[in-house]
Amino acid sequence: MSMTSTQQETQTRSWWRQNQQRITPWLFLAPGLLMFIIYVIWPIFSSFRLSFFEYDGLGEKVWLGLANYQELFSDRAFKTSLRNNVIWLLMYMLAVPAGLFIAIFLNQTVMGIRIYKSLFFFPFVISQVVVGLMFAWFYAPNFGLFYKVIEFFTGKGIAVLADPHLATYGIIAAGLWPQIAYCMILYLTGLNNVAPDQIEAARLDGAKGLKMLWYVVLPQLRPATFIAVVVTVIGALRSFDLVSIMTNGGPFGSTRVLSYYMYEQALSEYGYRMGYGAAIAVVLFAIMMVFISGFIWKMVRDEREGN
Amino acid sequence: MFPRPIQQASAPARALYKTALPIALFLWLFPLLGVAVTSLRPASDLAMGNYFGMPSDIAWGNYLEIFTNSPIGQYIFNSFKVTIPTVIGTLILSTMTGFALGIYRFRANLLVFFMFVAGNFVPFQILMVPVRDLTYGLGLYNTTGGLALFHIAFQTGFCTLFMRNFIAALPRELIEAARVEGVAEWKIFWYIVLPLMRPAIAALAVLVFTFIWNDFFWATVLTTSASTQPVTAGLSSLNGQWIAQWHLVSAGSIIAALPPVLMFFLMQKHFIAGLTLGAVK
């Protein structure tokens, strides 16, 4: 009796010993993977499904087929949002060269430069809600500094956030502030690691200034540029906070972007059209997917080469 | 070094650089300085149109007023109630996933890894309705716990990317040697890998703290009342009540920004190490 039980014990033990290497990673993955699947992966599919229904968040879901998507085609607010997203993407890209410019400006070793670097980075640490409030104050009609400065030079102030043609650009400027700081810190780190011998060699060959930057420095900064572009694209497409804080999509819906319009349709006082909201989210997801697959493709390639 | 060190430049160029630095910084931080000054301006100054001149007095009372006449203290407390559990939960989950993906070679490894990476990039709106329904179903809608739970899951994606790359760069011989000695796998995790991960854990703790503290979207989607809303969402609703009372809006903004700012200055090295991961080869 006792003999068989010890035998069994050694058997399970040796089974564990043999399979330990195979099982352990899955045990370690289980909690995180489970949470991630429940809260991130499954909801993506669930939203796709929802976009074919009419749903107010409480009642029954009613099957609509492609009707939500058909409605998008004739929805002017959707077109405005989509156009604004394109503007955001293009304008946001300015953060990459601007960040590089400031990084080059600050890449010196004078007294106190460390404090300068961290103070330049400062805007990134602040919540976008606070950034939005700051810029709203900056643009405020009649007394905002920006208004005053324009008034001083042209005799007539501009209320940026009340002007349907300018409001989006005003919000993007606010968003660029922390984004430039982020790109700057990426490039500062990159510049810190540029191989000094190559720079010296190029200097001996007579390279300097922009030529040096373009042919010698930038190729070495490629990893920093890649990450700067990735975070800037994502930042541009995620623009929700600033629009919500600064204009609520107005004036006359001119500053809506897809992320904000989706929220408006699905959850705000304008109505609980969650199916329609999901269809907008699917479009935004599809746009993001174009970029994500590009990034992932590059990362997988690097990973394969690395091994 | 690029650009050429300023020390090698001519004397006027050096002087120019040294004057340009503070001017550039002043312009760069101008919106922030403006808000900081406004937060200390008496309401009477604003009423009289003194927006940019010297404040007639330093009004610490603005800060007192927002704490006594608005729930901002509660909002701050709620933010901590969301942020701290999220930091702890995310770190526990992602050290484990990072260990699994960084140490073991198995067929689904890259697939799982890139699922975490890709999930991290998706727009929040595609998760919004299902996550809200799920939180509702769990009875956690409009609670700080429900918000924290979502944040833990989502941030695990980003942190797994970071942890896995960090662990994969550790010397493999350490682990191989332990295996030859017959050390159990969980002991390898606990006694060998975990102590080496301290810098990664510190970097992620600061980053996740800042991200979650500053989150606005999920706070508005998953919480609705002053007793549960974090300070970002709270500030947004206070902004609606304090129309044109810029001294109060400014004071509230400064208070809301303070914790991540302190965190950044205290843990700057870790913060930047976390953000710039991958910026160097």
Descriptive notes:
The complex is a heterodimer of chains A (307) and B (281). Chain A has 307 residues and is mostly helical. Chain A has 2 domains: 49 residues, no CATH class; 235 residues, MetI-like (MetI-like fold). Chain A has 14 helices and 2 strands, in the order H-E-E-H-H-H-H-H-H-H-H-H-H-H-H-H. The longest helix of chain A is centred in the N-terminal third of the chain and has 49 residues. With 281 residues, chain B is mainly alpha-helical. Chain B folds into 2 domains: 60 residues, no CATH class; 205 residues, Orthogonal Bundle (MetI-like fold). Helices cover 73% and strands 0% of the residues of chain B. Chain B is built from 15 helices and no strands. The two termini of chain B are 17 Å apart. At the A-B interface, helix 1, helix 5, helix 6, helix 8 and helix 9 of A face helix 1, helix 2, helix 5, helix 6 and helix 7 of B.
What is this structure's SSE topology?
The complex is a heterodimer of chains A (307) and B (281).
Chain A: H1 2-50, E1 53-54, E2 62-63, H2 67-73, H3 76-92, H4 95-106, H5 113-121, H6 128-139, H7 145-154, H8 167-192, H9 196-204, H10 209-220, H11 222-237, H12 241-246, H13 258-267, H14 274-306
Antiparallel strand pairs in A: 1-2
Helix pairs in contact in A: 3-8, 3-11, 3-13, 4-8, 6-8, 8-11, 11-14, 13-14
Chain B: H1 11-28, H2 30-38, H3 43-47, H4 61-69, H5 72-103, H6 109-119, H7 125-137, H8 144-168, H9 172-180, H10 185-196, H11 198-214, H12 217-222, H13 231-241, H14 246-266, H15 268-275
Give a quick summary of the entry.
The complex is a heterodimer of chains A (307) and B (281). Chain A has helices at residues 2-50, 67-73, 76-92, 95-106, 113-121, 128-139, 145-154, 167-192, 196-204, 209-220, 222-237, 241-246, 258-267, 274-306; strands spanning 53-54, 62-63.
